Hints:
- The protein is α/β, with parallel strands linked by helices.
- It has a domain at 25-104 and 139-187: Carbonic anhydrase (Beta-carbonic Anhydrase, Chain A, 3-Layer(aba) Sandwich).
- The protein contains 8 helices and 5 strands; from the N terminus they run αβαβαβααααββα.
- The chain has helices spanning 3-16, 43-51, 74-84, 106-115, 120-128, 133-136, 143-155, 184-187; strands at residues 33-38, 58-63, 90-96, 166-171, 178-182.
- It has a 5-stranded mixed sheet with strand order 2-1-3-4-5, with helices on both faces.
- β4 (166-171) and β5 (178-182) form a beta hairpin.
- The model has no long low-confidence stretch (mean pLDDT 95).
- This is carbonic anhydrase.
- Keywords: Metal-binding, Zinc.
- Belongs to the beta-class carbonic anhydrase family.
- Its cofactor is Zn(2+).
Amino acid sequence: MSLLSSILDHNEQFVTSKHYERFQTTKFPNKRVVILTCMDTRLLELLPAALNVKNGDAKIIKNAGAVISHPFGSIMRSILVGIYELQADEVMVVGHHGCGMTGLEASSVLKKAEANGVDMKTIETLEFSGVDIKSFLTGFDKVEDNVQHSVRMIKHHPLLPKHVPVHGLVICPDTGKLDLLVDGYQTTTT
């Protein structure tokens, strides 16, 4: 049985048994917060538990490294929608120790892409078209620096209201301990 078939079989039972009822909530976050974090599998249940966030409490955005690589990309758009349309009034960026984006080099990803059948002429075409593929696929040196960078990018976005606090934290993926890097209440102007 394929993974997809297994998921669909489970889903049919899930819906038939009405297990979804315990997850029902509104689209508005009860704690009025948007959280940008990493897609690391260790954080799936640990992060909400460590933050005391339950289903319906927060808008959680995940990507590799909790990185905002472009001020007008999908991550920033999601944060702004969370604030303007979904009633969030705070933002948290939560990176984690031992992140796979730490020290990630484009050459490693490109070698694996080539080994999986991606024609390297595609990379040349992208670069000729103005895409900086090496920058796009490069991680960061320190998780703390990345979190602070993402906080600054959010805080200084021209569409973000000045009164919205933007916090920066790093979580330990083994224990759930949070280290505060940026207290958004200290840097918020009204």
